[in-house]
Protein: Hydroxymethylglutaryl-CoA lyase YngG
Organism: Paraburkholderia solisilvae
Amino acid sequence: MSDVQYDKLIVQEVAPRDGLQIEKTWVDTPDKVALIDALSTAGFSRIEAGSFVSPKAIPALRDGEAVFHQIHRNPEVIYVALVPNRRGAERALESRADELNLVMSASQTHNLANMRMTRDQSLAAFAKIVELTRGTAVTRNGTVATTFGCPFEGKIDEDLVTSIVDRYLELGMQGITLADTTGMANPRQVARIVKRVLGRIPASALTLHFHNTRGLGLVNVMAAYEVGARRFDASLGGLGGCPFAPGASGNICTEDLVNMCDEVGIPHGIDLDKLITLSRTLPALLGHEMSGQVAKAGRNKDLHPVPDGIVCM
Amino acid sequence: MSDVQYDKLIVQEVAPRDGLQIEKTWVDTPDKVALIDALSTAGFSRIEAGSFVSPKAIPALRDGEAVFHQIHRNPEVIYVALVPNRRGAERALESRADELNLVMSASQTHNLANMRMTRDQSLAAFAKIVELTRGTAVTRNGTVATTFGCPFEGKIDEDLVTSIVDRYLELGMQGITLADTTGMANPRQVARIVKRVLGRIPASALTLHFHNTRGLGLVNVMAAYEVGARRFDASLGGLGGCPFAPGASGNICTEDLVNMCDEVGIPHGIDLDKLITLSRTLPALLGHEMSGQVAKAGRNKDLHPVPDGIVCM
C-alpha cells in the first residue's frame, strides 16, 4: 500500500440473500423487508435482496416475491435477485428485480450438485433468460461460482474460468462476478485471475465475491483491489456460513470491510455507524453470534476509559 | 502478489503466553507443559512460553517457573519469556528462558495502566535488565506495545514509535517487536511503519505482533510481508482475546496464517496438520470455541463427497 488517493470501492450487500439462505431460523417476511429497508438507507448502491430458487431447495428464501413487493425501493439502489434458471428469472421479473444474477459453477461437479444441470445446460438456460430481458431495463450479471476452488473437485483451471467469462460476455451479461463459494481463494491466485479478467472487462463490470471460510476474505479483497478490482460483495455481520464447516465463517463481513476501507482511506459512501447498529440486531433475529468483528470490538475511534489493573501485555 | 519465489516466514507461537493470559479457565501446569511440548515438535523455531508478571496481575500464568522447568526443551526452539520489570527478568533467568521479551507501550497512558510506570521508568528498568543478561547467552527482545493505536489515547505518533525503537537499540536489544496490542492497525499504516523500522534493523531482527480484533490480522501480515517483514507472532487457534471487546478475536491464528502461507507458496517449515489437530483440542481444554477458521473448515485439499441436494448458491 502506498500513500496515494484511492478509488472508490463499491460494496454490494448480500446478507438478505447469501446471508439468510443457510440460516436454520425462519425469518418472517416483515423482518426481511425491514432488514432490506434499513440497508437501503445505509449508502449501498446495490443490494442482493433475495433469490428465486426452488422453495424446496432453499426454504429460507421461499418468500422472495413477497419480499420484493413489500420493500421500499430507494431509487439510488439496484435490487438484485439471484436466479439459477428460467423459472427463477420469470419470478424475478414479475417481482420487479432491477438485476438478475445468473449463477453457475466453474466446477461441473458443483454445478450438477447445485443446479441439476451441466454447465452447458446452464448456459443454454441463460441464453433464454437473456432473451426474456431484452428490451427491458433489467440488467444481467453472470456469476462464476467456485472460481477459486471447488469443495468436491479441488483446484479449478484458470483457463476454464476465463472461458466461462467469455461465454457470459457473448451471451450479453453486463456484469461478471467471480465467486469464492467456499472460501478457497488466496491473494496470489486472486491477483492473477483478476488481472486476467480485467483484460476482458472494465473494473466497473467486475464483482468479487469472497468468503472468509479460512480467514482470508479481507486479504483477498486487498489483493483484488490492488490489481484494479473495485466492486465487492459482503454480508452484514458476516451473516452466512459454509455447509461443509459448521461454525466457520461465510461471506466477508460488510462492516469489517467498510471499517478497513475507512482506516486505509478508501472511499465507499457507506454509513458505518448505521451498519454496526444494524449488525448488532442480527444475533437476536437469528439466535446466534455473527462472525464479524467490528460490531463486537467497535471502531478504532471508540476509545475506552482507563481501567483499574493491568489490561493486557 | 506476483509469481516469485517467496522468502521464508518465521512464526513465533505465543498461545502459551498471550493466548492463555486472558483465559478465565485455569489451565493446570501439566496441561500447559503438554501444550508447549506439542508445539515444540511442530516446526516452530520460537515459542513464547510464559510471562513473569505479578501473579496478582495475571493469575493465569502464575506458574511460569514450573512451566519453564518442566517443558522438554527442543534445542531447535528458542523459548521466550515476557518480562515487564527487573523482578520478572530475574525469575525468567532463574527459569532458563532463552530470550527475554521486554515490553512497554508507546502510549504513556497504556504503559501507566499496565506497568504502573512511565515509559522512562520502563526504559530505566530495561537498562538494568540488559546488564543482568550481559555475558550470558540469553537474548533480549524489546516490544513496543500499542504501536499502531492505543485503546485509551487513540492514534500513536509514528515518530514516537521509531524513537522507542532507537532507544531499544541503544539499550542493546537484539530484536524488536511492533505490537498491535488491541487490533487497531491497518495495512497502509503497517507498510509505512515497517518500512521505517526496516531502515534501522534487518528483517531478521523485526517481529510483527498483530491481533485480529477488527478482522485485519492477516491483511496486516501480508502488508508487512510485502514490504520486507519476515517474523510474525501468532497464537494457536487464535487463542486470546481483547479485554475491551468480549467475543472479539485476539491474536492472529497460527494455523490460519500457516494455511495462508501454504496457499500463497510462502515457506514456513511448520507442520500444519499437526497444528490443526492440536488446535482442535483447545475448546475442550478451555471451554469455548476458538476464533481460528482453518481448524473448523479444514484445508483446501480436504475435499468433500458430493451431497444429495443443493449445497450453496
